[in-house]
Prior knowledge:
By secondary structure, this protein is an alpha/beta fold.
Amino acid sequence: MRVLKFGGTSVGHAEAFAQVASIVERTIAEDPQTVVVTSAMSGVTNALIAAARAAAAGDEQKYRDVRTELLVKHQVVAGQLISDGVARAALGRLFEERLVMFERLCQSIAILGELTKRGLDVVSGLGERLSAPLLAAVLRTRNIPAEAVDAGEIIVTDDHFGSANPLMDITRERVRARLLPLIEGGIVPVVTGFVGATQDGIATTLGRGGSDYSAAIIGSCLDADRVEIWTDVDGVFTADPRIVPEARTLPQLSYTEAAELAYFGAKVLHPKTILPAIEKDIPIHVLNTFNPDHPGTRIVRQTDNQGGSVKAITAIKDLTMITVEGRGMIGVPGIAARTFQAVASVGANVLMISQSSSEQNICFVIPKADAPRVLNALHEALSHELERQHIDSIQGQDGIVIVAVVGSAMKGTPGIAAKVFGALGEAGINVIAIAQGASEANISLVAAQGDGDEAVRRIHAAFELDKG
Length: 468
Ligand code: ASP
Ligand code: MG
């Protein structure tokens, strides 16, 4: 059994849909037990979110425009690919229905003047609820029996709106109860990515880019033989090819390496995708919809470690480094704990932590967007220490990048760090802080954002990653 997930650009326009249909056709010829998971058409989730935000700010025109734009966008695809008038009309009614719902939701958001996380999840998940029925209808034009399935029926999550977590036991039951009869009946389920619902049926989403995660969850529930993530590039690269033109596709990655890369900003895979796959040891293939014969990247438990200890370099930008500093911190217990409690209280995600052994400062890196709230929370939580001058300052430095050097076999290979820092030293790039995870699959360093691209290029060249 296979689960195939198609990303937004893979269903971005009519030709892309046709290409997806060919891939599904080819797949079921090899393995008729196939499940499809789809993202919203590219740009749709952004448009939905922008409209809801504008509505909350009192703009009642934007959502009307978006409604029309989305209706046209989906109808153009239906018009080009679905020649059967009855099927097209049914689909048209379905688009109308969902978009009327979108308009009503935005109206109430405008009336309330407030957009809750819960409300945003209902709105932002509508894109998949348009694309899945459309893709199912396109597959049927190729004589592939297909049925759209709303993941709100099968992926049961907690109520952490905006990045909900699946409750795996009940999800497994529901996925199997709903999808297995279809699969056994020769029907290809086309499931909405990204969305789920709480046990009470309230709509949730798994987080931006979460359709990858949906596919892995479903693959795990069905004990699939493989999960395929179909995107618009030839797999996972040694570095972002827009920064390093010589970057090349990695034929294989371990789960750990893929998780590190995804976490540190490689855009091809949602960071949580690996989790359900690891448990069941399901290989994940990252493949290109627009170059389907390319073998892409295979992500498995254990790689044969061809190609050296360093596999890939990635960079994550738009970060702020927070430094909590003071001589009086030495030996005062609990400052670190309270620091990170304050950070957690505003829901900010800490990407990297480092503390000098002199204990005179703690520094950590967070997304720039979270910095003002984090700084406020820290000033409050540590006000006593500031007053007593146990802490001299709490500061945020913007314009920060984390460069992560990833490879499982770095573990136990001496000299990697020396080579990384040698390459940066030669280029005159200043390293602000360093961290290495206990897994030793990753060395990450903090630098000024302006140095980020050059740092990636220099490290890529030092390890000759262009050569394979
Ligand atoms: N459509 C959703 C998003 O843009 C989910 C996805 O594409 O994976 O975040
Ligand atoms: Mg994606």
